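User: For my dataset I need records formatted as: sequence, then structure tokens, nothing else. Please produce one.
Assistant:
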Amino acid sequence: MSDIFKPISDDRNNPSYSYPSSSDTHPAENSTNETGRTLLAAVLGGVVSAAGYLVYSRLPDDQREKLHSHVRQLVESRVNELRGRFNI
């Protein structure tokens, strides 16, 4: 019995407490489910980033420069915020 299923001392004395049955979810099933979710997130992230790159590659130069300046300002503000928090 793994530690997560061991009852604490109060539960052992409680007549309504029941131990988990063998039909409960097994760690291997949880691992498979988690792997599937991770794979789905990776595939969706790849699709979204490819679509973003496609849109970005078709932007006119002036809009790309505006986007670059907005990103630089955002990064600078985050860096300054972190420096302020950590007193760097």
